[in-house]
Amino acid sequence: MAYHPGAIPVDPHSAFTHLKNYPIDGGLVDGPVYGSIYKSLIGIQLKDADEYADWQSDLAVYHDDYGDYSTNEPTMDGTASLIYLLAAKEAESSKDPSPSERGLGVRSFSYSHGAVIRGDSTKKNIALVFTGHEFAEGRDVVADILKKEKVKASFFFTGDYYRNSYYKKSIQQLVKEGHYLGAHSDKHLLYCDWNKRDSLLVTKKQFRFDLADNYTAMARHGIDVKKAICFLPPYEWYNDSIAKWTGELQLQLINFTPGTKSNADYTWPGLPNYLNSEKIYQSIVQYEGSSPSGLNGFMLLVHLGTDPRRPDHLYAWLGALIRRLRSEGYQFQRVDELLGQ
What's the pLDDT score for residue 39? Predict the structure, then answer.
C-alpha cells in the first residue's frame, strides 16, 4: 500500500476514551493488515471518513479510526494491557510522593515537564485562570462578570502587580469575593530559552529569591500563602528544573491546559500568531465539542490585560463563554478545588 509521507496515528483510541472520556497520548499501534483479513473481521465499521482512502489498496489497509480495531489498536492485546497495568501499579506503590503531591490527587491529572496542566478529565469541572503583570485593563470587567455569573476563579499575579497601588482596591475585592490568588513570579522572569527549553536562564538562587518576593507581596494583601501553593510560571513557560525547584519549596507548579487557543489572547495584529477574540472563542467551543473529554478538568487561561496594540479582548467574551459552558453541564471551580487541595 502507498504510504502517506509523515503520517502517524494522531488520535489513538481505547475503551477508556469512549467509556470514561479519558484521553490517552499514545500506545502500541498495529500497522496495516491484509485486505482479506480486514474484510473477514466481524464488527468493524469506521466511525469517521477514511483520511487514507486515496492510499488504500485491496492488498493492505490501514485506518486511524476507533472503529477498526485491527489496524488501530493502542493496547495490541490483553497481554500488553496487563503488563501496562502491573507496571503502573508497581510504579505507584514504589513512588514516594513529593510534599506538593501529597496535597493533590496528582495521579489522576495530566502533566507536562513536571507541572500539572489538567485536572480530572472524567469530570465536567473547569477552572478559569487569569494572569496579570504589566497590563490589567480588564480587571474590573472580569471581576464584574464573575460576580454577575456567580463564578469563583483563580488569579495569578506577579509581585510587581501586587505592589502596584493602582491595583490594590481590585486585589482586595478579589480576596473579599473568595477568588483564588496565587503567585506568578515577582519580576515576570523568563526561566528558560524559548527554543532550547532545557537551557535555564536563571539560577536556583535567583528563582527562589524572586518567588519569595512574590509571596511576600501577596502576604501584604492578607493572602494566606500557606493555602496558595499553586504557582503559575511567568510567560507560562518553564522546564523540569523549574518544576523540581518549585516542589522543593512545597509548592505545586501548574500551567494552563493546552488544546484551545485561549492563551493567544495576548497577541496583536502584526504578530504571526495573532488571533482575534472571536476566533479564539470559536476555538474553545470547537475543542469542547470535538474532544472526547471536552474541557473536563481544564485550566482555561485568559490574560487580564494585553498590549495596547490589541484591538479586542477575550475577557469581553467571558460572560458568553461561561453561559455556554454552563449550558453544557460544566461546573466552575477554583484551581485548588479542581486539584483537590
Answer: 83
pLDDT at 14: 61
Assigned C-alpha cell, 236:
507560562
Phi-psi sector, 34: left (phi>0), alpha (psi -120 to 50), beta: beta
Q: Which of 227-230's residues contact partners 24+ apart within 8 Å by CB, and which partners?
A: 227/336, 227/341, 228/180, 228/181, 228/182, 228/183, 229/100, 229/103, 229/341, 230/154, 230/156, 230/180, 230/182, 230/254, 230/335, 230/336, 230/339, 230/341
Helix, strand, or coil (residue 256)? coil
State phi, psi for 105 to the nearest 5 degrees.
Answer: -85, 60
The pLDDT of 269-281, averaged and rounded, is 95
Extents of the domains making up the chain: 1-95, 99-338
- Is 226 a residue whose pLDDT tops 60? yes
**Average of per-residue pLDDT across 49-78:** 73
Q: What is the pLDDT of residues 170-193, one digit of tens each?
A: 999 999 999 999 999 999 999 999
- pLDDT above 90 covers a percentage of the chain that reads 67
The answer on pLDDT for 278 being more than 70 is yes
* Rg (the chain; Cα; Å): 23
- Please compute, for residue 283, the number of CA atoms within 13 A of its CA located in the half-sphere on the CB side: 16
Q: Indicate the CATH number for domain 99-338.
A: 3.20.20.370
Residue with the bigger pLDDT between 23 and 275: it is 275
- Pick from 188, 143, 141: which is nearest to 162 by CA? 188
Cβ neighbours around 307 below 10 Å, total: 12
* DSSP one-letter code for 200: B
Long-range contacts formed by 170-176: CB under 8 A, 24+ apart: 170/136, 170/139, 170/140, 170/143, 171/221, 172/221, 173/143, 174/143, 175/221, 175/222, 175/223
Residue recorded with cell 495573532: 274
Task: Give backbone dihedrals phi and psi of 247, rounded to 5 degrees, phi first.
Answer: -60, -35
